[in-house]
User: What shape does this take?
Amino acid sequence: MRSYRVPLVGPYNTRISAVNASDSTSGYVGVGIVGLMIVGKTTQASDKDARYVNCFPHTVADQITEKKRIFTVKRPGFGTQSTPAAGQKGYAIHVWAGNSNAIISAFGETNSTIYNGAASIGAITGRATSITETSINGTATITVPSTDNTGWYADSGSMTEITDADWPGDTETITGPFAHMDGFALIMTTRGRLWASDVNSITAWTANSFGATNAYPDTGVAAIRRGTYVMAFCSTHLEFWSNAGLSPFPLARAAAMTVKVGAVSADAIARIADTIFWAGSAPEGGLSVFQYDGSLSRISPPEIDSALILAGASNISLTTIRFYGLSFVLVKAGPLTYVYCVEEKMWHEWSSTTPLWYKCAAVPSGGTMVNYAVSNVSTSGKVFLMNHASLVFTDNSAAYTARIQLPVMDLGTNKRKFWHDIELVGDRETSTSAITLSYSDDDFQTYTTVSPTGDLSASRVRWTRLGSSRRRGWVWTHAAATPMRLEAAEGNVTIGTS
Assistant: This one.
């Protein structure tokens, strides 16, 4: 008999060729890549090998010994902050720093209503696609573009439409959010033009105040400010523009910074501080998630890229969130959400009965750290809340399950193993916290659930008499509305002679 110990964290799923049916996720018909119909298949590359659902790796370093310990931690959930629009889906959210951190949200798929907290500040035509803020001669102002090519703003009053005769949405199709720089409001059009308002105005526009994003022939996607540049995203390339004091259009292109990587949509671009993330493609094709923090890098491995292809470009959206001192990029790909932890540089999944994190925002200043979110799936009309001072482990009061699935283990030989026991090493919870052990001996085709259920509040969480196999994949599921932080599993096994 020999002992073994395995960490409960590792690289995300590595089997990109194993596209298999899923018992929990249905596919799409007629959505995604032309010529590919996904029926009854999961939109993830595989259900096999390592999977971490609703839990993520967290490295803890000992400053004295310089040793590192890696834990698998269950993500916190979302409660309710307010219910401004019962029966409606949410499409944008922003914490208005210039107005005492007011929570501004947009609900309504056909025509949106903009809310300050639970109070309406006006309806707009079309669906709001984003909310940003600026200062016009010292007056805090929010700006909202809409799917019907209109632009809207509000300072101390109600939402008001931009009605200037030279507003670019009157003659072209606007795309993406407003970007704000040095008193100018900028917005992209699908024609590949980057437009600027008159200085210190959101309402006044000039007919020829635009720059053509034509380093390559392309269509416009979105304009995002980063530092002293505006990043002009197109479908197959990215340009950088800065304020050169020109007239009537004030910006000039930094030609040497142009890169041949585009974005699939304005909805698939997000940021954490001055680091920009987006889903896009290189000229050779495919879909990947990229990061720009002064230099360009691809952060998605082939497994995630395969899942994005299955989901289809039109079903991909990005948002970001921070908690536990870590930064996360949420890549919603159809019904699934793949999550990248920036500090750990590792991927995992989020799952819930109803995903509540279509777009997230946070209080940007002060001593209170609170995250907010809206859902384009839930019709509850709620602004959801992740309060770090009072975390919950449910989503809108509904339980969700963390899943730790390890890759198949053979202990270096294909000889038969007789598994005597396995025990979890991790934090002891203060209240009952059920956790279930399952295993698969046929490469994740079928699973055996072990009885009884474990309890993370017990002094030991251990299972015995676990049968035999040549190779085994272990799975733990945790559906309790409590925290979970686990480091390893250890046990004893006898290796046979054949």
Remarks:
- Residues 20-41 have pLDDT under 50 and may be disordered.
- The chain has two domains: 2-75+402-495, 79-392.
